[in-house]
Amino acid sequence: MDNLSLNLLIFSPIAASLLFFIPIFRDNEVIIRRFAKTFAGLHFAYAMCFCVFFNSDVSYFDELFLFGQSGIQSLGIRTAFAMDGLSLVMVVLSSFLFFMATIASKTVIRKRHKLYYGLLLALETAVIGVFTSADIFMFFLFWELELIPMYFLISLWGSGNSQKSAMKFLLYTFMGSLFLLIGILLLNYYSDTLNQQMTSLFADINVVDKLPVNIQILISILLMIGFFVKLPIVPLHTWLPNAHCDAPAPISILLAGLLLKMGAYGFIKFNILLLPDAFKIIAPVLIILAVINIIHAGLCAYNQKDIKKIIAYSSISNMGIVMLGLCTNNEQGAVGGIFHMVSHGLICAGLFMIVGIIYGRTKTRDINAISGLASVMPNLAILSVLFSFAAVGVPLLMGFVSEFLTFWGAFNAQYETVIYIPLVVLCALSVLILSTAYMFKFLHKTFFGIIDDSWSILKDISAHEFIILTSIMGVIIFFGIHPMSLVDIIKPFVDIMIESAGI
Amino acid sequence: MNSTYDIWNIFIPCIILLIIIAIQAVFAMVKNNIKFYKIAKWISVSGIILSFISLFDVQFEPIYYAFSDSIMSNTYTIFMQALILIAALICVLLTKKTVASRRNRAFNFHAVFMSAVLAAMILVSVNDYLTMFVSMEFLSVACYFLIAFNKGTLSKEASFKYLLTNIVASSVFLFGVSYLYGITSSVNFTEINDYYLQNTAEWMYTISVLFIASGLLFKLAIFPFANWILDIYEGSSTSVAAFLSVVPKIAVFGILCRLLVFNFSYSFEFPLILLILASITAVWANLIAIRQRNIKRLLAASSSANASYMIFAASLVSVYNISTVIFYLVTYVFMNLGVFAAVILLENSAFSNKLYEFKNFAYTNPAFCFAFLVSLLGLAGMPLTSGFVAKIYLLSAIAKSGLIFLPFLILLVIVMVISMYYYIRIAKLMFVKDDNQEERYVICKTESASVILYICAIATIAFGILPDKIIEICKIIAYNI
């Protein structure tokens, strides 16, 4: 495992994206696409190597040196990268979804291929950088680095009102990230002064029992604004439906599959691991916020006319479940929350892919205009049914495991508050029936019923699309049947998390 | 005899500039031939380079006081002077189009231009209020002519507006100086400093300091004196606007930081007043920038906003904070001049100044577009550019000043989001492909402006990826202030 280089894993995509812009590279659509696909595939294979050789006792650590310097030493910033169980899972998930997204781009992207694939690979570096940074400022650098490629990907290749949505996405997220920056700066400052050091590695930041709890809560809230915009948690969520709606299908996959998970990842890394004292106090409030998230977004999803918006709101609702799991502060809940990050990433990717295929064929996203597609697209219909089952949590699929673990953990949450937590959780659980309602509304209205004449000439999914959907489905079924293979990787990390935040 | 030594020891760079001004003036009188107008630029360039080289010869260790303590030199002033010369060099290379429009006045233009540089050089190294006033007025008078150089009535109006506003600011400045002289019976920085080391400062001191600062705040377009900047940038030619956005700014920050560390530091209220003025400016400038349809007016507002960010850090005086201001200045010079170079290139290629005209060229001029994008993203503070490091460094300075300044930090963050909107709107327009309009080309060849653009973009990226050495230098400079 010593031979595996984290630097190569992180920086090879952006290096590959720079290759596109050298003038010798021919502006030929097929060559560019195949190059990007091959690269993403190799990258995924390399990421899998990390998975194979992973040992939870020894974590990967790597540092990038440019001209003998690492980061900004005069400020104590180092370009250091580390990989623990959680990072590993997220990195492999990212690499997999980027591979899928590059394949899925074939039918959707019709212009400016060089720029598109270049930005896509630059985005991959940013996302993987966030999941592996060992330094809080590096974390922030990659967190912001992801904004610009994403902005251009949505605004230039999107449909409908894409420029406005992209701007909304950019401003919301930038706002959040700057609040995050204030939190990071304060955290770094207090940690440095309290410990007499000048470093900003995650491992060296230590304010537990030293900093007054009030200041910890203040920093925690500032950080959380940043993460909750990304996650999103309900009052800060309005950018997400617009961005999802107008983004092209592969970008929607990445947005839902990865970028939302960045919020949850940051929440675990900062709020739970670095500021556990504050977390213990805020957690009951967060549970209530998460439950509001689940209910509100679920109700919104049921009322949407636009099929892409249904999926978008469902992903907000699902991030509420992740949040609920992380805040339970016990083993089942935390494993469930992290498991749900992965499972929702995969399920949502599949659902957005399906919606993208439908939109590409019919050129409409109005749920009332489409009906009876099952008779012309039988393969897509079968896969959609499977994905919807996964989304509502049918046993033997991945969604069931994560939702079950989360709610098990949530009922056992031990907090001494005015509000009886299990009662709140019961509210959320009863509202989970909504997820069945909106998923089956989507399924029923689009695929079943009487087919309109104008849709009778539509073709079924192509080999490309079939491969993407079945491979995602394969992963979902595999982990649904054998969840322990994933739990084994994240378990050591969760143990550390519970130990630090345990009551 | 003594002053001869002084000249040899620290005044050589200024003397070289003075000689260049004289040469330009003689050419303007004698050889005012339209054919030779290109020579003027190269005389200026060589003068600035010579002056820059002679800076290495200046004595600065220990602090050197010259001309009966009216001028001083230390590491800090040398660094600021070097920065001014670099910025001036870039600005001279951008003036081609401006001068070409009035060839018979080429030598006059360059003579005035070099006087402005000279005034800025002296301003950062002054050690008493009278020399400071003279050099500030010198700078302003030069600026009146530079602004009015453009053809058309708009530039005359702008020049007159600058003149009137500046007169108000300078008289307020002088008024403050007279109060301070009344209290301490001295105009020398060192003596005033010594006075307040022994005596406590009273409320009159705060008022006089505030009045003195207003003369400097005018040059930076901070709130009570902020309105002029939009019209003046619009009226003057783009290269002069580029000059106005960097050289006076470096000079004024050079002197302001030094005053804040020593002469202004005996009042508790003054930094707070400065902070409030900076907050008002930050909000005003960013809000007004959104509404601008003219790129020069937009850049004017952004220049005012950036000045206010630096005031935030500078007013909470500490060595660390001053080092962040210096680093921000260094990066700002390259980012801002990169954007101005791009705007000049666009103007030369027959784009008008209207923002919505700036489209349809991203796919025909990818290299130009990339360099422009880098400069813009640098101003917006995106990672991998120097703007990102500068932003983090500056905000960390305010964060380290104490939790009580958290509201200001949050305000700064909110206005930075607003600024993101208008920078990225320019960037977005480049990529918009309007099918009705024909494809447009930006003429980049045989233009010194395009070289400047690429150099600035490369510097922006280089400082963003490897900022370590420069931050160390900034810390040393700030320590030796």
Task: Give me some keywords for this one.
heterodimer, A: 503 residues, mainly alpha, two-stranded antiparallel sheet, 19 helices, 2 strands, 72% helix, B: 481 residues
In terms of quaternary structure, the protein is: heterodimer
Helix % of chain A is over 70%
The gyration radius over C-alpha positions of chain A equals 22 Å
Distance between the termini of chain A: 36 Å
Treating each run of at least 4 consecutive H or I residues as one helix, how many helices of chain B? 19
Helix content of chain B: over 70%
**What proportion of the residues of chain B form beta strands (DSSP E)?**
under 5%
Low-confidence stretches of chain B: none
**Most extensive chain interface and residues per partner:** A-B, 38 and 36 residues
How is the main sheet of chain B built? 2 strands, antiparallel
Structural class, judged by helices and strands of chain A? mainly alpha
- Rounded Rg of chain B: 22 Å
Kindly report the average pLDDT value of chain B. 88
Low-confidence stretches of chain A: none
Structural shape of chain B: globular
Total beta strands of chain A: 2
Query: Could you tell me the strand content of chain A as a percent range?
Result: under 5%
Give a quick rundown of the structure.
The complex is a heterodimer of chains A (503) and B (481). Chain A is mostly helical and 503 residues long.
What does this structure look like?
- The complex is a heterodimer of chains A (503) and B (481).
- Chain A has a domain at 281-503.
- Chain A is 72% helix and 2% strand.
- Chain A contains 19 helices and 2 strands.
- Chain A has helices spanning 6-20, 29-52, 85-108, 113-132, 136-145, 147-157, 162-195, 213-230, 239-246, 249-272, 276-303, 307-327, 331-362, 378-392, 398-411, 421-431, 433-447, 463-481, 484-501, and strands at 60-63, 80-83.
- In chain A, α10 (249-272) packs parallel to α12.
- The two termini of chain A are 36 Å apart.
- Chain B has 481 residues and is mainly α.
- Helices cover 76% and strands 1% of the residues of chain B.
- Chain B has 19 helices and 2 strands.
- Chain B has a two-stranded antiparallel sheet.
- In chain B, a hairpin with a 4-residue loop joins β1 (64-66) and β2 (71-73).
- Chain A binds chain B through residues 21, 66-67, 69, 71-75, 112, 137, 140-142, 144-145, 147-148, 151-152, 155-156, 163, 167, 170-171, 174-175, 178-179, 181-182, 185-186, 188-189, 215, 218, and chain B through 363, 366, 370, 377, 382-384, 388-389, 392-393, 395-396, 399-400, 403, 406, 409-410, 413-414, 416-417, 420-421, 424-425, 428, 431, 465-468, 471-472, 475.
